Amino acid sequence: xxxxxxxxxxxxxACLGIQSADAQCGSGPRYVDSIFTGSTVTTVTxxxxxxxxxxxxxxxxxxxxxxxxxxxxxxxSFTSGNRxxxxxxxxxxxxxxxxxxxxxxxxxxxxxxxxxxxxxxAITEVLEAVGxxxxxxxxxxxxxxxNGNTYGIDTNNIFLGGNSAGAVLFMHYAYxxxxxxxxxxxxxxxxxxGGGLEGISxxxxxxxxxxxxxxxxxxxxxxxxxxxxxxxxxSAQGTADPIVPYNCGNPEYGVVPVTxxxxxxxxxxxxxxxxxxxxxxxxxxxxxxxxxGGVDMxxxxxxxxxxxxxxxxxxxxxxxxxxxxxVKDVTYGATISLYPNPTSNIMNIQSxxxxxxxxxxxxxxxxxxxxxxxxxxxYQMNTSHLSPGIYVIRINDNKxxxxxxxxxxxx
Length: 411
Description:
It is a single chain. By secondary structure, the protein is an alpha/beta fold. It folds into two domains: 39-313, 3-Layer(aba) Sandwich (Rossmann fold); 336-410, Immunoglobulin-like. Helices cover 24% and strands 27% of the residues. The protein contains seven helices and 16 strands. The chain has helices at 87-98, 119-147, 165-175, 184-193, 251-254, 263-273, 294-313; strands spanning 39-47, 52-59, 67-73, 102-106, 153-163, 212-216, 233-238, 248-249, 260-261, 277-282, 336-339, 346-362, 367-371, 376-382, 389-397, 404-410. An eight-stranded mixed β-sheet has the order 1-2-4-3-5-6-7-10, sandwiched between helices. A hairpin with a 4-residue loop joins strand 1 (39-47) and strand 2. Helix 2 packs across helix 3 (165-175) and helix 2 (119-147) crosses helix 4 (184-193). The radius of gyration is 21 Å and the shape is globular.
């Protein structure tokens, strides 16, 4: 499968933030590199109303406070899954914690498969899950105000997102801001649930504000809900996704009678109305192609990390300026060429920007080679010592941009 990843020019490479997430931005590896060996996980009940739990990941041995918080929700079509079994969510929580973030994987109320065949029941499930997500965010605000900030988070840098159904949950959390946006059907269901847009899952009276959204194969019922200068957004999706339509359609192979509009349909609205946005498309790929790890997950992890740093380092956030030709995969600062690919002996790497370092990882993410301080536009890499397989090459330039990432096949 041919993948395309183009990463945007960054205003900074890193945000060190020993006492504040945006302090000393660009001066160190924190929030960019894995500077901690692991994470410590704490399981808490965030909704006593529905006995819902989440796992909170903190960098092992970290003494910093006021750290960015990333809350993620698992996939499973709103009928299955939990806070521990979504490989994408757990991997991101672990990887981001190693980089200095506080992360959380939440569970939320689920429904029966048969309920998805009824429009009212399907809508009810999504709106109830959104209410659960809001209770999870309020849990952290409550902790800051009543417990002295147990988890050392910065409430100015809270990011929400998920994988598949979890992304659908948080996209509706982010972009349904008033009941007037909703159809009569949606409004009636919301009234039946009770609690309005805030939900009834607990921790009432505390803020549920956030800064940006991580959308991995998620969607909205109506793409036009992205209709004002909204918070930053990063998105990834396969263009042939049969579970969450890339454009607009009925999800789950067309059997759920509710419209969802994926990245393709949201594209022009994202371009026009998102302060900072990055996207990663997987041409011809189906649902969550990164779910089994490997190269695809490395690319998603790189995308999310780079976007988080752009947003954290942008203070204040820029105004929304519509692009001319609609949304595009974000572009890396340099033009990169690698050939031959596949390779068996020597690979040529050329860049329009001076390369500083090159690293190679195998499909599991294990580093197998690192070349530093090369300071050249052209480099010949000997690949004869590598076992046949698929590898990820990351190329850093001298200007502090997020690394360019390419997939390489060694024969």
